[in-house]
Amino acid sequence: MSALLSLVVSGSALAEMCYDRSVQGHRLVVDSHLHFQPFSGPHIDHQVMVEYLQRAGIKYANVYGIGQTRIQDWACLNGGDCSGNAVIAPTMKNDFVNGVNMNAYPRTGVELRASMTFPDLQNPEGIVDRMAILDREFPGLFQWMGEANLVKQALFSYGHEAATLDDIANWAPFMEQLAERNMPLALHSDMGNDEDDYGYVHLMEAVLEQYPDNTVVWMHLGTSREQMELDPQEHVAQMSRLMDAYPNLWFDISWNVLYDGYFRDADRREHYVGFLNQYASRILTGTDLVASSYTSYNDYLRALEQNSYINQFLDKRAFRYIALGQSYFDLLDINDVAPPVC
Q: Which residues pair with 196 in a beta bridge?
């Protein structure tokens, strides 16, 4: 609405055009971090997952696979041997499944964008060639890359290792491709653990320093299940320092680890609310639900409620950018505008 037009619209009409949190709630409307494919085992039917999103009021979603999958593929659930714990290197399998499904089913009320989840950041050779394969098979469908693992301690026991500084230096070919396409790279990168709070931050700093033209989305505010005791004031100071130094750095606030460890406790939460209010235009939302054939609508709703919890404490500007999706629209140049907040 133009400023001139707003002058001639009555107060009651304006009220009807704005978003009233007291009536409409605080749920996120953009799930920018949703795995349609599981770590192992059978995946959920694509149309069923989209139906969940529609029922829950989601307007936009990024369709993630998972690169690394368990070799056992849930054999133990079918009477097979599941005593091992190895994973295979990231593959394109889930990206192809998502691509086929998205092309096979008609578009719905939820606008979907496919994400390339195949990159093996510890072995980056061939990433550009694989990007070209997805481009050829699914023209224009893949507009995002990630979730890719820079360092994910939860997978250490499965054979995963953190990327090295040499690995990161070898990302240059595919990072150049991403920059040319304005395609974000979403990274899971643990800051550290409860024994060493910031032991891995130097890896992310190396990425940001070497590739300043790339949009990098740091998943989960850098937290993980291995790190549930971060001092919130120090954590916010670290993130603020990086956000100020690297204007193409974004954070996402997906995954219930943030609700469990940081957001539901009022004393800890207040530090994060201040951070989110300040940097709202570079914060993305999502559930980080890893869907499988066993995922119910209530499972998705539970993830949605937990990952929307922090929104009710945000100021009006931050709520519009984060909960109502304006930051996502701006990042991807989507021709949509979040409503003002009453």
A: 193
Measured at the alpha carbon of residue 56, what is the angle toward residues 51 and 57, in degrees to the nearest 5? 100
The three-state (H, E, C) secondary structure of 129-185, written as one string: HHHHHHHHHCCCCEEEEEEEEEECHHHHHHCCCCCCHHHHHCCHHHHHHHHHHCCCE
| Block residue for tokens 């578009």 | 107
Show the tokens assigned to 10: 């009555």
Q: Are 280 and 318 in contact (CB under 8 A)?
A: yes
Q: Reply yes or no on whether the pLDDT at 2 is more than 50.
A: no
Enter the tokens of residue 129.
């060639």
Of residues 283, 293, 286, 288, the one with CA closest to residue 330: 283
pLDDT band at 85 (very low <50, low <70, confident <90, very high): low
* Tokens 């790339």 -> residue: 214
The four Cα atoms 160, 164, 166, 171 give a dihedral, to 10 degrees, of 60
> 189 - beta bridge partners?
151
**SS3 state of residue 283:** strand
Task: Tokens for 201, please give them.
Answer: 């931050």
Q: Which of 12-16, 101-105, 233-237, 255-259 has the lowest mean pLDDT?
A: 12-16
Query: What pLDDT digit, counting tens, does each position of 330-340 carry?
Result: 999 999 999 99
Asked if the model's pLDDT at residue 341 lies above 80, the reply is: yes
The pLDDT tens digits of the residues spanning 155-167 come to 887 778 899 999 9
Helix axes 93-104, 127-137, angle to 10 degrees: 20
| Cα-Cα-Cα-Cα dihedral sign, residues 218, 220, 223, 226 | negative
Closest by alpha carbon to 33, among 331, 309, 307, 338?
A: 307
